[in-house]
Specification:
Helices cover about 75% and strands about 0% of the residues.
Length: about 230
């Protein structure tokens, strides 16, 4: 990465982290594209329990007066909600794909599509979706950070690091980009830099979160290895 995965974080890296980017970027973009008709309904499509969200999205998508951009945004939100509810990727993928067909510039849909492919270990498809996303919106830090996740999953650590750096150049306090960069630095045996960045991430996440607990665990490990 979704909401369940983000809350529990059975794996802090890989698909769960990609899903985190997808959820944040996708829902944020949905709001940004809903300035016209259906804004309140789109907000309902993003809030509340999952069943209520899915029903609100269904109503908005089926409404013949809904404009294409808002319909695509609703499909994106529905895709996330469907995955959160079932942890099945097929229907979520279908929603993200439909959103792209309706609105080819919907970056959130490409990020969501990539996250689902990453869950399925379809790394080439995940990379292709994000390459499109960064072409459409080169100023979107979540897209670059998600692309870094894909490179990391492919074992391309240097390439992953470059994408995280692009994301952080746009938003230096992007939480997951910082955490993922720290992990990649550790993989590259740049332990001192990784340790400093893990410490920085403690200021970015809720202290009660799984992400924060993971960062503290990594800090303890690196401090022992570095004799600090």
């Amino acid at each position: 990465m979704l909401e369940k995965a983000l809350a529990v974080w059975p794996r802090v890296r890989g698909p769960v982290a990609a899903a985190a980017f997808a959820l944040t970027a996708g829902l944020g973009l949905a709001v940004a594209t809903s300035a016209d008709a259906g804004a309140a309904s789109l907000d309902d499509c993003r809030r509340g329990d999952l069943i209520s969200r899915i029903m609100a999205c269904d109503d908005l998508i089926a409404d013949s007066t809904t404009d294409a951009v808002t319909r695509a945004a609703a499909l994106v939100s529905r895709g996330y909600a469907i995955y959160l509810r079932s942890e099945q990727t097929d229907e979520a993928l279908a929603n993200f794909t439909s959103a792209i067909l309706i609105d080819p510039d919907n970056v959130a849909a490409y990020i969501g599509l990539s996250a689902m492919h990453l869950f399925r270990k379809e790394l080439d498809q995940a990379e292709a979706a994000l390459n499109t996303a960064v072409k459409i919106a080169p100023d979107n830090p979540d897209a670059w950070s998600a692309l870094g996740e894909v490179y990391d999953a492919q074992g391309k650590n240097e390439e992953a690091l470059a994408q995280f750096d692009k994301a952080l150049a746009l938003d230096s306090r992007l939480p997951m980009a910082n955490l993922n960069k720290a992990d990649t630095l550790a993989k590259l045996d740049r332990k001192g830099e990784a340790l400093a960045l893990y410490r920085f991430t403690l200021y970015l996440f809720d202290p009660r979160s799984q992400q924060s607990a993971y960062a503290r665990q990594q800090i303890d490990t690196l401090e022992k290895e570095l004799g600090q």
